[in-house]
């Protein structure tokens, strides 16, 4: 029972973490809260369904299609909703936030029309693979979700800290103008960031589809809000923080249900977030100076 | 100041006049349209949810009415004319539509409105005006109790759920149950209340009560807890969208016990979403499209040729409702509001496509719903 709930919590937490990674990347570089991230994630989930259920292609193709489609959505988001607002005189700092909210509503309505309301099943033989440990049923998907989230976190940390592109990205995050004077192609870096973040949303979408077998046009909103809470909990723009925050939220939600009252699931999970933030206002991994700098 | 006083005096007297006229209209109720060579001519007002997000319900309902109207009029004993008004699913629009219909003295009865919330405002008004009103899709508690003139032919949840529970409990020798319900929806909440009441009546042990919210996608935590407590039966008050996912995740986890659901769980979509995992769901419903009753199959065929799609529960309930009205008119012998009310209240064992129908003393439904279970990916009648 405890072990089963632990697995449930880690699975949920890993999914939260992957979504939060996309959030935190965009926030870290652009200082923008991308409210459309949840909807891009939802599109990734639907791509998975179309590819595996309708087209009957193998699962790896579903990942490729989902990554491609969400990357294109990410590019369009940057090109049409964010870039026109950047560096213009008199644009409120809230304008990009509002325009991403607009994109999120647009995407939700489009998916309503394209896929219809209601839940869509994700039927895939891969999602059925499981093994028994005593009375516990563990699904391969649950393990894969955890592994993928760890791999993504490590790859992202490595990329940000050790590669040239990552350095350029951090320089851009530090100061856009200075970085561009020093020869960093900031435009390209920003596009790259949004595309990578969106593609990660797409991966998360397919994983959720496989784990919970429920994909609907509204799923983006609640997941997006959770992702937002996690990056604040973990520290804005911090990759490790997104991972830790995701696991904390996932585990606390699960254990509230397991040992408390499921009616208070979200309430208690968010009370925990509030308490952590009272103790560490900058988030678990956040740095004070960085938080003040923005 | 004086002028204002004068003007308001004029206004008040004008209002009084309108009031007087209205009173006069009411007291000289419709009794015209009498028998002409044996046929009773009657106008019936329909209030339905025709525009807005729930327009599909209103469409099915009015289609059901129109189909029944055609058949009834062809038989020739009663000639019904329908006056259809749109409520848009809103209380205030339903009320004004009903007032418009009530003020027409030729209209002897009202059918609709679609939602229970609408009925809660329209019902008292109709009762006050002494016009019989019958809901065909209103399932909330207490609707027929609004007044003497308020009826319904839709089986309330409070009647359907216990029947399904009883059959499942007997078949599987259930001692312990787990409950799970959506706590952010009035409909699923009221279904849960009914389940809880019934559980107490049947003296079953509740091992746990779990909740979830609309649109949630992960139910593993709740289900793992339920699994650990080993119930014999799970009572789930959920709409089909969430319900199907709950069943899917439960079966994946290795929970094999049967589920009992409410009216919201009764949809072919459950099978679409959950596939094989939907096996073992019990629901009670008045409408089963695969019933081997020539009446039912004929209705489905006619409906399909007329409207190009399969009828659902709402179309079927509407279809039967107009037949009930026609029967009432026949028994009353004239198109009169009061005579019709008395005739309606006495309707007993009227055979319709939903089965044998009677009103109880309140004007509520008295009929045995069919218990369906999903087996091999299909809804089937549970013996």
From TrEMBL, chain A:
Protein name, as recorded: Branched-chain amino acid ABC transporter permease
Domain of life: Bacteria
Annotated membrane topology: Multi-pass membrane protein
Listed GO MF terms: L-isoleucine transmembrane transporter activity; L-leucine transmembrane transporter activity; L-phenylalanine transmembrane transporter activity; L-valine transmembrane transporter activity
Major localization class: membrane
Family membership noted in the UniProt record: Belongs to the binding-protein-dependent transport system permease family. LivHM subfamily.
GO CC terms in record: plasma membrane
Annotated TM spans: 6-33, 63-82, 94-116, 136-161, 189-212, 267-285
UniProt keywords, alphabetically: Amino-acid transport, Cell inner membrane, Cell membrane, Membrane, Transmembrane, Transmembrane helix, Transport
Subcellular location: Cell membrane
Keyword Transmembrane helix on entry: yes
Short name of any one Pfam family annotated for the protein: BPD_transp_2
From TrEMBL, chain B:
Gene3D superfamilies: 3.40.50.2300
InterPro entries xrefs: BCAA_transport (IPR051010), Leu-bd (IPR028081), Leu_Ile_Val-bd (IPR000709), Peripla_BP_I (IPR028082)
Leucine-binding protein domain mapped to chain residues: 43-377
Signal peptide range in chain numbering: 1-21
GO terms for biological process, alphabetical: amino acid transport
Alphabetical UniProt keywords: Amino-acid transport, Signal, Transport
UniProt KW Magnesium keyword: no
Keyword RNA-binding on entry: no
SUPFAM superfamilies linked to this entry: Periplasmic binding protein-like I
Pfam families for the chain: Peripla_BP_6
CDD domains on file: PBP1_ABC_HAAT-like
Entry's family note: Belongs to the leucine-binding protein family.
Official protein name in the record: Branched-chain amino acid ABC transporter substrate-binding protein
Annotated organism of origin: Peribacillus cavernae
